[in-house]
Write a sequence for this structure.
């Protein structure tokens, strides 16, 4: 996510903080300073830091559960509206998805239980309402926050945790795209409810509502595409008519090809049909902008591409394209020779054709 920077790395997962998070801290400090001076400001900031520490632990709950199923978990980003753990994918087995989704709120249940033990006899169920007031015991306020985190996350508003758990349960009865659609529509219903409540004076809830609404839509589209992708092989959508460039072709020459063809990326191929990388339109423009028109393809191509064989299921190609920064995947023949590639535009075209054939 842009505008965020690295705070620390915990066993391979990078914890990032979005810059708007610091705006939240300044805002909290300012509001508390106005009401109770510097001590209140400091207390306010300490509370926010501890609250977000609970949010981070919640996200690590998801991260460690996902890793058990071999899912990569590159980073967690802290935003003012909460944390966002990026999982390479969600597990497909309903039980696994249920466990990964439940692992986050489960962490907050554990924290809440520990706080109740810490508070001991000082714990009053009425402490939970103290979140609205400044003052009150810090442990009591944190307890309230953790209980809220559990309750809020368990609302079946896909793609929030409760919604993912809801989809996992639905998936035991329905196929995954249908289960996703039902969960996403339910999620959008909640998003609208949150939006209405948010408009009545809770800007954070309003932000969450907007985010949820569009995230639910995006997840439905992704699942539908993926289910279509399952019916095809990589070769069904690969581009085989294209201009390749040699490693020593200059940026100026590729610029000519950019205009002559409809291609936006050019495979860089050796005389022995070995693929070295791709020159993308963005890289080409950057190179020319830097007045390096005589640079060769070898110098400025992007070489972090994935490749799949033409026989592999289209879904694999689709997954690689979703992960790729260039939004494409190279296709190889059984003998490893480079024979074509698929970009996101091809995926969209295949989807359109599939839809046209089976409306
Ligand atoms: Zn969560």
């Amino acid at each position: 996510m842009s505008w965020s920077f690295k705070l620390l790395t915990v066993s391979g997962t990078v914890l990032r903080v979005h810059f708007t998070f610091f705006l939240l801290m300044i805002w909290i400090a300012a509001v508390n300073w106005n009401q109770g001076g510097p001590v209140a400001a400091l207390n306010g900031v300490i509370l926010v830091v501890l609250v977000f520490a609970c949010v981070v632990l919640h996200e690590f709950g998801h991260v460690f559960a996902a890793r058990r199923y071999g899912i990569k978990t590159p980073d967690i980003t802290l935003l003012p509206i909460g944390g966002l753990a990026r999982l390479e994918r969600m597990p497909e087995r309903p039980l696994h998805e249920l466990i990964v989704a439940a692992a986050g709120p489960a962490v907050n249940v554990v924290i809440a239980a520990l706080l109740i033990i810490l508070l001991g006899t000082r714990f009053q169920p009425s402490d939970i309402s103290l979140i609205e007031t400044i003052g009150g015991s810090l442990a009591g306020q944190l307890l309230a926050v953790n209980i809220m985190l559990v309750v809020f996350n368990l609302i079946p508003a896909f793609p929030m945790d409760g919604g993912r758990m809801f989809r996992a349960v639905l998936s035991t009865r329905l196929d995954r795209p249908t289960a996703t659609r039902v969960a996403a529509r339910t999620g959008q219903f909640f998003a609208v409810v949150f939006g209405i409540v948010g408009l009545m004076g809770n800007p954070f809830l309003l932000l969450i509502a907007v985010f949820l609404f569009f995230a639910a839509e995006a997840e439905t589209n992704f699942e539908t595409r993926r289910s279509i992708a399952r019916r095809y092989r990589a070769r069904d959508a690969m581009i085989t008519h294209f201009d390749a460039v040699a490693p020593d072709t200059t940026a100026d020459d590729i610029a000519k090809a950019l205009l002559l063809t409809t291609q936006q990326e050019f495979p860089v191929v050796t005389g022995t049909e070995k693929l070295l990388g791709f020159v993308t339109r963005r890289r080409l423009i950057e190179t020319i902008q830097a007045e390096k028109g005589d640079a060769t393809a070898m110098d400025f191509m992007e070489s972090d591409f994935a490749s799949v064989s033409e026989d592999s299921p289209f879904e694999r190609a689709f997954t690689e394209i979703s992960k790729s920064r260039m939004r494409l995947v190279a296709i190889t023949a059984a003998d490893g020779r480079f024979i074509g590639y698929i970009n996101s535009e091809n995926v969209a075209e295949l989807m359109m054709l599939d839809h046209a054939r089976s409306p």
